[in-house]
Amino acid sequence: MRRSTHLALGAIAALCTGGVAAPATAAWEPVRPVEFIVPAGTGGGADQMARTIQGIVTKHTLMKQPLVVINKSGGAGGEGFLDVKGSGGNPHKIIITLSNLFTTPLATGIPFSWKDLTPVAMLALDEFVLWVNADKPYKTAKEYIDAVKAAPAGSIKMGGTGSKQEDQIITVAVEKAVGTKFTYIPYKGGGEVAVQLVGNHVDSTVNNPIEAVAQWRGGKLRPLCVFDAKPMAYDEPIADGKAWKDIPTCKSAGLDMEYLMLRGIFMAPRATKDQVEYYVELFKKIRATPEWQDFMKSGAFNTTFLTGAEYAKWVEAEDKRHQALMKEAGFLAPSN
Amino acid sequence: MTTGSSSNTGPTHKLVEAGVTLLIALFGVIVIVGSLKAGINWGAEGPRAGFFPFYIGLFIVASSAINLWHGLREDNDALFAEWGQLRQVLSVVIPTAIYVGAMPFTGLYVASIIFIAWFMRWLGKYRWLTVLAVAFGMPIVTYFIFERWFMVPLPKGPVEEWLDL
Amino acid sequence: MEELVNLFHGFAVALQPFNIMVMVLGIVLGVIIGVLPGLGGANGVAILLPLTFSMPPTSAIIMLSCIYWGALFGGAITSILFNIPGEPWSVATTFDGYPMAQQGKAGEALTAAFTSSFVGALFAVVMITLVAPLVAGFALQFGPAEKFAVYFLAFCSFVGLSKEPPFKTIAAMMIGFALAAVGLDSITGQLRLTFGFTPLLNGFDFLIAVIGLFGIGEILLTMEEGLAFRGGKAKINLRVVLQTWKELPKYWMTSLRSCFIGCWMGVTPAGATPASFMSYGIAKRMAKNGKNFGKGEIEGVVAPETAAHAAGTSALLPMLSLGVPGSPTAAVLLGGLLIWGLQPGPMLFVEQKEFVWGLIASMYLGNIVGLIVVLTCVPIFAAILRVPFSIIAPLILVLCAIGAYSVHSSTFDVMLMLVFGVIGYLLKKCNYPLAPLVLAIVLGDKAEEAFRQSLLGSQGSFGVFLSNPLVSTIMILGLIALFWSLIQEGYSRLRSAATA
Asked: Is residue A171 scored above 70 in pLDDT?
């Protein structure tokens, strides 16, 4: 880690003096433009992250060849994954994943799995927070749960992004923990979900921090708890003197559910060790830039960074967990 | 349809229209079959995926039946187009089909150069110099606008690979 | 008037030499993006977004929003000249713009389109300046049921317009709906109508269908009629601009109506596409010479362009004040804001005054710069029609292929485009209207989604579509639009009965 910070600083210094930064640590380097596949639409969370990375790479000249972002969002991202799966041995193609790496093949039956790809690195994990409208009386997760329990089954509306994806998985888990039924309403994007909550068209949501933070600061929404093992790390006050750190875990409020969304990088199948190493080094440099750190802060991301075997192990465990969760919720595609 | 070129015969309008209507009906049937696969009843989350397309398919088939009946009843001997005109149309469709079909293998640039040159030489009868200027100029401009300015990669084939573009 | 002070401060920011340079550059890039089919505003802005990283945020957003204005202006050019709409909201512009070009009035059509766009945008910016907070509150009223009502109104104000046989119109529209349904069903998260065929995962993209049906189909029709583009005799001097300007004030009523429709659609946010269709449909019903719509009526260019640009501009308001993008391009701009560390939402207007008002000022200036740039180019654009057909046709075909490819980076889409071209040729010859088909492809899945979201929320009760004054009003407006011709007939009968 320290070495990479060093490298990045070196890179920035080289840039400042007008030179081209090219630390000769990796034996392999791209010889043509690298396609950065986003298995989601333009403007979404993964797209934002990919374009931030592209901007950082351009600004600090971290690569000799251009990095080109391409959206392949068809079939809940299946299009993008199939494209990378089919580009075996092409080192000029990387993909950023979200939870649809696990959910799309299960829910749609599109034939791919993470095992078809070469894991590179986990960049960050996206948190999930339980939100309600600020006009609602409940101030804590417990008050909310009591209200949900008291209401007739199905009368509480939970809004979320997409169908049979992370938001609905969390909703089902909350249902199980509380012992009631929500009416889950899927929307296209997280920003839209947050605004539907502000407009009182749904009763609660499980938005990512970055999707709802603006409404929190505007006094329109209230976070109740975070679906993580421990509170988030950011202690800068956001609204009413409260920081991300002050949001309690859902577990402490009696909702035994943890969920974090992967923001990770994969390569096409049959990548060599040198090639993977090149990208790992690249992302280490990116993580060290101030732009990246600002971006992490603005979205209250969990900044866990994993590579190699550790990363693969994490993905495998998460894949198993998704299979169990999706099966339990009845989200598997009919043909499976 | 006044600018006939070779002859005054051709398929009748009635015939072609009936054919088009039947194709649309066939499309409707495909939609119905696909919807049945996806499930057309109401599930736990409201109407299933195939619910709406199923009725849309029914609408397509039903309105095609009405259109077919109307079309056949009509007393209209007009021509759809003369053979000469259809030949003109096909003289664009077939090369374009070849162009499009070749693109995944030759890449966009090579296919475009040949296609533009063919079109201008055979249909436009231009001098070779003009033909080559346009045929090469356009893909080169395209390359700079798309790949260099906007960084949109376009399909490439062995020639580009060899040139290392 | 604190706003006005802020606005003047904003002008001071936007008028810095660097920002003006950035503005002109953005407009020019935007026009190029708008002209090239397939690149489009959203893609163009997304592609250029990372390049603005090294600029200060205000300059960066000025550049990106100017690309957006440029793309809005540019979309009309290919619609009018070649019947190829580069953006969904330019489709309605082809209905009268292309016939005008064929009649040798390309210059007039382009001038009318650009000027109307400018008027629409200006109206929207004034609205943003004066009543931003109020309008943002209105946008919050729109849940799924209200959104469905808006789509319903868009469809209703458009159907029943075509002169083609009614069952052919129904068949065409249903084909559009069916094509829109292919791919992932967003409510159940299930695939449908793909038959296990991977390239269909994406569904049928509007752009590919429209490039084929309109663009390629038109080239095939031209081939059938002999090798010539009609309209080669277009006047190519700048006087045409002034002559058209003299004529335009006659249509102030249509413009004003279209401005309101556009702002409403942009804020809600249903977007520019329903706005342009709705505005065209209503203009056709209300205009004196509505019967001539579709044959090259200048009013038929004014209505959709004004509404589309008003919607495109006002779509930035919910983006800034709520963080909800009103259009795909706004979604990308939103991502840009986040990347620069600006948090859109209620607090943006309070905390980032310089940025917000700089942006609003740049909307005024950017549109003026844009108008000047595109108007001076009118003669050049009109002159393109003088290029012989056998040179321009292969170039258009190649550009269409590139456009179709760059939508999803898929060669399958290019083949699909050609298939759509042949289908477009056959349907047009067999008297099937293409406009309802395209409208259904663009809005079909969105309407279905809103409909099913509403029913989920109401647990299956259709009462949700009449559950509050807002949604009821829009639904009733839709029904009125649908049965307009019957209502008109009944009214005239009543009057004749009364006078008799």
From this structure: yes
The whole-chain average pLDDT of chain B stands at: 87
Judge whether residue A15 has pLDDT over 80: no
Most confident option among A61-75, A90-104, C278-292, C328-342: A90-104
The rounded Cα C357 to chain-centroid distance in angstroms is 26
Instruction: List the single residue in A66, A163, A184 with the smallest CB-CB distance to B151.
Output: A66
Q: What 3-state class would DSSP assign to B12?
A: strand
Using an 8 Å Cβ cutoff, are C50 and A54 in contact? yes
Copy the structure tokens of residue A17: 């003096």
Mutate to test the interface with A, among B151, B162, B165 (most CBs of A within 10 A): B151
Distance, CA of C151 to CA of C147 (rounded, Å)? 6
* Confidence check: pLDDT of C159 > 80: no
A271 burial via Cβ count (<10 Å: 0-12, 13-18, 19+): buried
The minimum CA-CA distance between C57 and chain A, rounded to whole Å, is 13
CB contact (8 A) between residue A79 and residue C453: no
Task: Test B134 with C395 for CB contact under 8 angstroms.
Answer: yes
Residue A208's identity, in one-letter code, is N
Please provide the size of chain A in residues: 336
What's chain C's average pLDDT? 86
Report the 10 Å Cβ neighbour count for A115: 12
Higher pLDDT, C298 or C408: C298
- pLDDT attached to residue C228: 60
Tokens of B47: 């109407």
Predicted pLDDT of residue C500: 59
Do the Cβ atoms of C452 and B80 come within 8 Å?
Answer: no
State how far the Cα of A202 lies from the Cα of A194, in Å rounded to an integer: 9
Angle made by CA atoms B33, B38, B41, in degrees to the nearest 5: 100
**What ipTM goes with this model?**
0.91
Prior bond to C433 cis, omega within 30? no
Identify the CA nearest to C323 among candidates C338, C313, C302.
Answer: C338
CB-based contacts of C130, cutoff 8 Å, min separation 6: C3
For residue C54, the Cα-to-chain-centroid distance in whole angstroms is 31
**Distance separating alpha carbons of residues B4 and A332, to the nearest angstrom:** 60
Concatenating the DSSP letter of every residue in C277-315 gives: HHHHHHHHHHSTTGGGTTSS-THHHHHHHHHHHHHHHHT
Q: Do the beta carbons of residue A98 and residue A210 sit within 8 Å?
A: no
CB C75 within 8 A of CB C274: no
Count of C-beta atoms within a 10 Å radius of residue C177: 26
pLDDT at B150 over 70: yes
Q: Which residues of C touch A93 (CB under 8 A)?
A: none
Strand partners, A159: A185, A205
Contact between C278 and C142 under an 8 Å Cβ cutoff? The reply is: no
- Cβ atoms C141, A199 nearer than 8 A: yes
Cα–Cα distance for residue pair C161/C434, rounded to 1 Å: 12
* HSE-up (13 A, CA, CB side) for residue C461: 7
Beta-carbon count within 10 A of C490 CB: 11
Q: What is the pTM of this model?
A: 0.88
Interface subset of C 137-156, CB within 8 angstroms of A = 139-144
Per-residue pLDDT at B45: 66
Other beta carbons less than 10 A from residue A26's beta carbon:
16
Cross-strand bridge partners of residue A262: A125
Tokens of B161: 């690979």
Three-class SS of residue B61? Answer: helix
Those residues with Cβ within 8 angstroms of residue C337's Cβ, 6 or more apart along the chain or in another chain: C57, C61, C343, C344
Residue of C49, C146, C194, C454 to mutate, testing the A interface (most A Cβ within 10 Å of its Cβ) = C49
Which pLDDT belongs to residue B165?
67
C-alpha C273: how far from its chain's center? 4
Asked if pLDDT for residue A192 goes beyond 90, the answer is: no
